[in-house]
Amino acid sequence: MISNWIDLDSGILNEYTSKVIRRASDMQGFYTDSKALNELIEKEDPVIYEVYAVPQEREGELSYGVTFLHSGVVGDEFYMTKGHYHEKRDRAEIYLGIRGKGLLLMQNGDEVKWEEMKRGTIVYVPPYWAHRSINTGDEDFVFLAIYPGDAGHDYGSIAERGFAKIVVKVESGYEVIPNPEYR
Ligand code: PAN
Ligand code: ZN
Fold first, then answer.
1. Which residues contact ligand 1 via a Cβ below 6 A?
2. Which of 1, 89, 119, 156 has the fewest CB atoms below 10 angstroms from its CB?
3. Who contacts 26 (Cβ-Cβ below 8 Å, separation ≥6)?
4. Is CATH 2.60.120.10 correct for 18-178?
């Protein structure tokens, strides 16, 4: 597919070749409050995020996808993506905010940084940095991501260790605090 079309107001991609739906039950081990997560799963097992993408596989090619990260909390923690390193660690990525608001949390070894995102924000994720997005607003947080075709996704390291910081809801908005479970 050489040409495609995105509705820049909604973020809806006209054509895609891959669709991933992540529900609360797909996120076990990713939130610190596992009791709150289990309650959510038993109640309605809500969709946390959806990714519509046109992935490629070969070196030199580019993949892209739009993520719809819904709004909500698990305990105090905002809805977020699993987060990953690229399997090929030296593969970078570009994020473009489309609607809603959130954070892009990045980690390299024990070093953590984050950027606020909204419509129009461009964030460059450098090689070697794991990345996770977090919806800090009360509507969908939608963004486009463009990454090398051969980047691959390594979820294992994050599933095992988590990120060193988590993002929690507070009265004034959000706070980025140390992850008590970080190993
Ligand atoms: C993004 C992410 C997408 C979903 O397209 O894959 O937002 O997040 P997880 O992959 O962590 O579940 C990207 O960074 N691609 O490389
Ligand atoms: Zn990525």
1. 51, 65, 67, 81-84, 93, 131, 133, 145, 147, 151, 153
2. 1
3. 48
4. yes
